[in-house]
Amino acid sequence: MDSIVIRLETNGLNAFLNDDKTVSLYPSDSETAVFHMSAPYMYDTAGAVCHEIDVSLARVEDEYLISYTPDREWLEDESRVYPVVIDPTVSTSTDTSNIDDTYVHPGDYAGQHYGETSFKVGNYQGKLNRAFLRFLHYPLEVDENNIIEAWLTLKMVSGTTTANPISILEVYSAWQPGTITWNSHLNMSRKYIGHTSPVGTSHYSFWVNDLYLNAINGQNTGFMFCYLDEGINDWNQLYSGNYNGGSVPGLLRPSITITYKASSSASVGFSTNTKLTGGVRGRRYYVGMTAEDFASDIQYAINGWSQDNTISFSRTSVSTQSVMDIYFMERSPSMDQARAYTLYFNTSKQEVPNNSEGDPLYDWYYCQIWINKSAAEVLVPNTSTSRATIAHEMGHVFGLDENNDNPYSIMCQYGHGRLTNNVQDCDRNGVKRIYGL
Ligand SMILES: [Zn+2]
Q1: Residues 221-255 pLDDT 10s
Q2: Beta-ladder partners of 342
Q3: Which of 200, 321, 374, 397 has its CA 20 to 30 A from that of 78?
């Protein structure tokens, strides 16, 4: 792994990289950042943590690309236990202008509590209180598969704190903090999501992964909070987006913190550093008649490897033009039961000799992928398993070794708990590294 690149669609916001490796995003007409990305760190499976990650920022048309380049010495240290996870977090801006909130109770009038520095939830002086909250800018339109978790935090005002759980509801109807009332909120469309008890006397944390994604996609209009048991005679008070006391008032206002990840790959290239002579671009592959049923799986696998301009392979019907043939063949029952395997050949179409681990000792000019007709589990065409298996074998053709430490790599063997059926960035980055692309 060299770098991990995160793409930011900022919707017109300007991004700046700060000296402490955080990134702040500003509207073009404001000096107040609407959100911040924290400095990244990485950790391995043994729990070792490293902050040595270079951060760079580049503008490409309407997007920003943030690159995280981890310290290679730390990554390659023999004590490292893979997989390594790079773990940046990003939080919604706690600027007052980024937060809409208020609360309602029976008998209120429009805008009665708009602008207050805290909001109430629960029964207070004989009236039931419910709160509404949303953020105007949400950080990062990241790939949802990269989000590990998103937490919404509400800090408690001291002196009112009891340990009673509060429910979070997703709201779908339009609302404005200056006009919403108890009566108008009764007709609003909303759904109960869950509830949580406070952490000590300091705050409530709500797990909001799906709500966060829905907010980004405009599928909700914010969140409502109410007591889980509205029959009890108790209330809590929480700091609002308008709170302005203390030395750093923003620390007490509501926020969402998102942790996202990118898994890295330890092994790239065979141990002997051998590869396909002539490279992986502008090459041809040939589908043997026996494997014709797998033709669309093969094309699917090619497409996965072709992303980010990693490889380019087109199909040929002239077998002599091919550097990668695919066959569906019977292997002697005494041979291994793998679902597929790859054979490497030199210019005279003789098999390249292997080392003790079965890796080819020399560069190869041509490969054959055999889908094993006598496997314990024979591949079925047009399934995610057959696409994944073929993509895995292609990785071997391009020079990648097994990557059994990383279940998110297509080069992790199925029997070692592979969790993906598609070629991943770490796999493509491995190929790029082998060929210096
Ligand atoms: Zn393999």
Answers
A1: 999 999 999 999 999 999 999 999 887 788 899 99
A2: 369
A3: 397
> What tokens does 114 get?
């708009």
Judged against a pLDDT cut of 50, whether residue 283 lies above it is answered with yes
Give the start-to-end residue ranges of the domains of the chain.
4-87, 96-260, 283-435
Share of the chain above pLDDT 70, in %: 89
Whether 67 shows a pLDDT value over 60: the answer reads: yes
Distance 79 CA to ligand 1 centre (A): 25
CA of 404 relative to ligand 1 center, distance in Å: 9
Residue 296 Cα to ligand 1 middle (Å):
21
| The CATH number of the domain covering residues in 96-260 | 2.60.120
Task: Determine the distance separating the centroid of ligand 1 and the alpha carbon of 186, expressed in angstroms.
Answer: 59
Å from CA of 435 to ligand 1 middle:
20
CA 236–ligand 1 middle distance (angstroms): 57
Q: Measure 402 CA to ligand 1 centroid, in angstroms.
A: 5
> Where residue 265 falls among pLDDT bands split at 50, 70, 90?
very low
226 CA → ligand 1 middle, Å: 53
392: CA distance to ligand 1 center in Å?
Answer: 6
Quick one: fold of 283-435? Collagenase (Catalytic Domain) (3.40.390)
- Residue pLDDT, tens place only, 397-435: 999 988 876 777 899 888 887 878 999 888 898 898 888
Rounded to the nearest angstrom, the distance between the alpha carbon of 144 and the centre of ligand 1 is: 29
Q: Tell how far the Cα of 393 is from the centroid of ligand 1, in angstroms.
A: 6
pLDDT in tens, 297-354: 999 999 999 999 999 999 999 999 999 999 998 876 656 678 999 999 998 889 898 8
Whole-angstrom CA distances from 99 to 25, 27, 81, 142, 240 are 16, 15, 42, 21, 8
Asked whether the domain spanning 283-435 has the same topology as the one spanning 96-260, the reply is: no
According to the model, what pLDDT value does residue 173 have? 97
The rounded Å distance from CA 22 to ligand 1 centre is 39
* pTM metric for this prediction: 0.53
